[in-house]
Amino acid sequence: MQGLVLQLTRAGFLLLLWLFIWSVLRVLRNDIYAPTGAVMVRRGLALRGTLLPSRQQRHAARYLVVTEGALAGTRITLGTQPVLIGRADDSTLVLTDDYSSTRHARLSPRGADWYVEDLGSTNGTYLDRAKVTTAVRVPVGTPVHIGKTVIELRP
């Protein structure tokens, strides 16, 4: 009788161990294959369970505006070419910020939307409060933090 209980205990423990391993692998798989760089942004006002688009999102971005940092007030007209941001002299927006990299980030147009991507910077690029790891769509009026500099797309 004790041998049977011991065998059932071993089998139960082994089953629990495999369930634990399976759950860990499932979580890892979801983390690896989940879309990276995805950012949730609250848009509009909630009304009866639906989200209404804000006034800013009805207009396409036409300007890149520096809202904070040494270049506050700088406005760049957006065209069809990507905007390179960093300390390099050939950047579209040349930063004098010690916390920005030589080639820090790039804003690229894709249709009517603009996407920001970090170019392997030391301190990272943040869309609102989320770190950017891949190309992420930038909604109009959402702050992009590059070191001490904050930029926004404006209509």
How would you briefly describe this protein structure?
This protein is an alpha+beta fold and 155 residues long.
Question: Descriptors for this entry?
Answer:
1 helix; alpha+beta; 2 domains; five-stranded mixed beta sheet; Tumour Suppressor Smad4; 155 residues; 13 strands
Approximate helicity band: 10-25%
This entry's quaternary arrangement is single chain
Q: What is the count of DSSP helices, taking H or I runs of 4+ residues?
A: 1
The whole-angstrom Rg is: 24 Å
- Topology as a string of helices (H) and strands (E): HEEEEEEEEEEEEE
Strand content: 25-35%
| Low-confidence runs of at least 5 consecutive residues | 36-57
Question: What about the largest sheet?
Answer: 6 strands, antiparallel
Q: What is the correct CATH architecture of the largest domain?
A: Sandwich
Given helix and strand content, the structural type is: alpha+beta
